[in-house]
Design a protein that fits this description.
single chain; 93 residues; alpha+beta; Alpha-Beta Plaits; four-stranded antiparallel sheet; 37% helix; globular
Length: 93
């Protein structure tokens, strides 16, 4: 299994877009077949990132297929328009 973790910092004043982005990510579960698990959350404490995604895939190939899926691409495009920073890590478990 591959775990894909992504964290974002968002531009101030984009709260509505942030909510749409995070809900869009949640909506990919059960729609993109390679996505086995999807947890999306906002940071509730003092920290340097505003939100996080934890997602699981059977393989790196499935992760690549997820990233290339047009439904993911649409959600990702929204994120790119409102983020100031992104950090990601993928690991096998």
């Amino acid at each position: 299994m591959i775990r894909h973790i992504v964290m974002w910092k968002f531009c101030p004043g984009t709260e509505a877009e942030q909510a749409a982005f995070l809900e869009g990510l949640r909506g990919l579960m059960g729609v993109v077949p390679q996505l086995r698990r999807c947890e999306v959350a906002r940071n509730v404490g003092a920290g340097s990132y505003d939100a996080v995604l934890l997602s699981d895939f059977d393989s790196l190939e499935d992760l690549a297929a997820y990233k290339a899926d047009p439904r993911h691409q649409a959600v990702s495009a929204l994120c790119k328009s409102i983020r100031t920073d992104r950090a990601a890590v993928d690991y096998e478990y």
